[in-house]
Design a protein that fits this description.
The structure is a homodimer.
Chain A: H1 2-9, E1 17-19, H2 28-32, H3 49-68, E2 72-73, E3 79-81, H4 82-85, E4 107-109, H5 114-123, E5 129-138, E6 152-161, H6 168-184, E7 189-195, H7 196-205, H8 213-220, H9 228-238, H10 243-253, E8 256-257, H11 259-266, H12 275-293, E9 300-303, E10 316-323, E11 330-339, E12 356-362, H13 363-376, E13 379-381, E14 388-392, H14 398-410, E15 415-417, H15 425-435, E16 439-443, H16 445-450, E17 454-457
Helix pairs in contact in A: 3-6, 3-13, 6-12, 7-12, 9-10, 11-12
Protein name (chains A, B): histidine--tRNA ligase
Family (chains A, B): Belongs to the class-II aminoacyl-tRNA synthetase family.
Enzyme class (chains A, B): ligase
């Protein structure tokens, strides 16, 4: 039937955005922002259709990138046995949600996707996989929803497990962060890299006792939010480090650079005494050589102040931050990750290790930015993909409207019809405008007699 | 660069399945089925990459259908305030998962997507929406995983909220079930329809006391699993119904038909005495007239034994079952739904009602069937979409391989490279075969000198 071809061929039907033409339209989205009567759990949110459209766009960008790099995907349950999560997150374990004991097993909601991934690898004896996983995780943190911090939030993880030559998978993870943040077009960003071995070596040569490495590391991790004076104060007065050791650390953590810094530090009289630091620094050089080939060194900085909180990292670590134009202050981390060669072994009865490196994109912040952008722009986000509305100007044509709609649906065309016996033409056209439907097929007695259908573009009222 | 065009133009790159050519390949999927060392929570499952590929295919079919019918999508949190779920599910409420009280609000995991949807509408004062929602729900039921019954499982819901002319949205929901089950190609199916008003009218004229309607309804609901004798026994001996009333019910619930049955029952001496039943029967006639226009009456049966357990239904109810070839025994429900005009009002402080009708596709059973099909067939399911593998036959070409891979990635082509300095050509080709990568770009000293790349199809070893 010709209308099917007409609609299918129309260039409108894949458009994502369309210009606002009338503001009087009753807009679902606006309703959604009114006072809330029933309440949601603290720190959680609904996604309305407009927010979902943005979310879908962000996910598509991220998933395309993961697929471009050859990743498979897996899924794991939202809850795990409590013991699976125990002892993996250090001080943050207090933020884990537990389920009520209703008889049976003790369960907890997943805190991240990395530990379930390691459990999955061990359980299925997988030693080689490149996988992505996009799912919600749960943390009983203080919510700060305007800043994109929720108790339920998405993580988009990409990980490479397997025994490979050093730094090649690690470099690919950074390439992926670079691609995704560039494509999402969120403005300037920077990817800081460091290595746990360099940190540990640095702590050792600065005179930090071995049993304080992790806790001092947690304090260093606060440098993106606190001044050096406050960090030093916490080290010395709360964690009992000598002032001299703290000052030594202070010198190192102020350093930033690229491959040249790694080379310089390999010559550093003190740091070069640590075998661990040297191994990390050599790998850092190697990493930068691959990053050059991948053409991403413009955004990557070797930054000795980067520490990252989680316990399970064993090698390279990294974190991407958005940097506001004209400022060097970071406005928040949007991706992070690193190498964790020991985690899978924690789940294996024979402690067999599977080396892993991965990255997690934290997209709630990205959503916030995209939503603000969408609101600020004159573009209206479509929340459906309907190509054509089947309408009529006259009464008693419900059956004919439904028949034509059926034909369109059966031909795979996205079509809508009003669920009223005798809707007004104006309200049918209004619905098209509100939801951005580009075409309207108008039925009338005369057209039915002639066996034709008028197809109009909604925006111009012109016949196609 | 020409290789980019070559790969991009290759007809292979969107293929989903490919023939198994070598069985010796170490297959991830097989590993996944080995004995499990770490355990998962009871009634939950991981999805391995092969299962995810099948899941993605099923979701795409379902989402395309929902979008074809003009639905927007929303998302809600995995947990709700406990009070939101209280009093909505009747006897099934005992199956709700509660979270541990860790200070703060009392939370429960969502039991379905319908109650959160109603809460969302009330909270945002939405009176008109057509939305779909695909997400996991949680029930502390006895798991029967081989039959596709899990404690964590997906629901794919499509609902139409709003005040419209009778039976048009209801008929569209059935059209959607018909489209999805046809497209998923799961074999024969049947969609049973009934109406809560017809059931209630039937109970009234059969002499069931009004306060026993819901509990007798629950017993009738078991007719798909139990014989009439057992159902009658439960009514009489457990629920205290008179034998006479039970026998009367027995006569009605054996009836099946189409519009003709609705017409006949409108003339039924007893049933026509119930105003409620008559309203339901008239609407059933109207429904069938729309189903005829939608061309779906071949699969739809008006079945007076269909009851459905949930409390919130107020009008039309339906359930789709797969019917094995040659048998009339149903092998399980794969979709269900109905009209629930009172649920949104339960969340509104002024009890404003928003009429709703919807359908939920329960896809775990669908996954099981599709997975069995995939295993039985000679087709291997691809778990990545990689178009080309960048390989080399000679040593010391890592940098060149990474450079070419970077070019491909930057051009948007899905490409892989082995993370080894000097991988064997055979192991690179083996990887292509294992994961169905159609093309391989082979670098060698001579090609580098000549500034060209050999592009071969993996299956035939021929140059492209």
């Amino acid at each position: 039937m010709s209308i099917i071809k007409l609609v299918a061929n129309s260039s409108f039907y894949m458009q994502y955005n369309y210009q606002i033409r009338e503001d009087k339209s009753k807009n679902l989205i606006e309703c959604c922002q009114e006072t809330q009567l029933m309440s949601l759990c603290q720190g959680t949110r609904d996604y309305n259709p407009k927010q979902m459209a943005i979310r879908e766009k962000v996910f598509n960008t991220i998933i395309s990138c993961f697929k471009r790099h050859g990743a498979e995907t897996i899924d794991t349950p939202v809850f795990e046995l409590k013991e699976t999560l125990t002892g993996k997150y250090g001080e943050d374990s207090k933020l884990i949600y537990d389920l009520k004991d209703q008889g049976g097993e003790l369960l907890s909601l997943r805190y991240d996707l990395t530990v379930p991934f390691a459990r999955y690898l061990a359980m299925n004896k997988i030693t080689n996989i490149k996988r992505y996983h996009i799912a919600k995780v749960y943390r009983r943190d203080n919510p700060a929803m305007t800043r994109g911090r929720y108790r339920e939030f998405y993580q988009c993880d990409f990980d490479i497990a397997g025994q490979y030559d050093p730094m090649i998978p690690d470099a690919e993870c950074l390439k992926i962060v670079h691609e995704i943040l560039s494509e999402l077009d969120l403005g300037e960003f920077r990817i800081k890299v460091n290595d746990r071995r360099i940190l540990d070596g640095m702590f050792a040569v600065c005179g930090v006792p071995a049993d304080k490495f992790r806790t001092i590391c947690s304090t260093v991790d606060k440098l993106d939010k606190m001044s050096w004076e406050d960090v030093k104060n916490e080290m010395v007065n709360e964690k009992g480090l000598s002032e001299e050791a703290a000052d030594h650390i202070g010198e190192y953590v102020s350093l930033q650079g690229g491959m040249d810094l790694a080379e310089r530090l390999l010559q550093d009289q003190k740091l070069s005494q640590s075998k661990e630091a040297c191994a990390g620094l050599s790998d850092m050089k190697l990493l930068f050589s691959y990053l050059q080939i991948f053409q991403v060194t413009d955004k990557v900085v070797f930054d000795l102040s980067l520490a990252r909180g989680l316990d399970y990292y064993t090698g390279i670590i990294y974190e991407a931050v958005l940097t506001q134009v004209g400022e060097t202050v970071s406005v928040g981390s949007v991706a992070g990750g690193g190498r964790y060669d020991g985690l899978v072994g924690m789940f294996d009865p024979k402690s067999r290790k599977v080396p892993c490196v991965g990255v997690s994109i934290g997209i709630e912040r990205v959503f916030s930015i995209m939503e603000q952008k969408a609101e600020a722009s004159a573009e209206k986000v479509r929340t459906t993909e309907v190509q054509v509305m089947v309408a009529s100007a006259q009464k008693n044509l419900l059956e004919e409207r439904l028949k034509l709609t059926t034909e369109l649906w059966n031909a795979g065309i996205k079509a809508e019809v009003m669920y009223k016996k005798n809707p007004k033409l104006l309200s049918q056209l209004q619905h098209c405008e509100d939801s951005g439907i580009p075409l309207v097929a108008i039925l009338g007695e005369q057209e039915l007699k002639d066996g034709v259908v008028k197809l109009r573009t909604v925006a111009t009222r012109e016949e196609v």
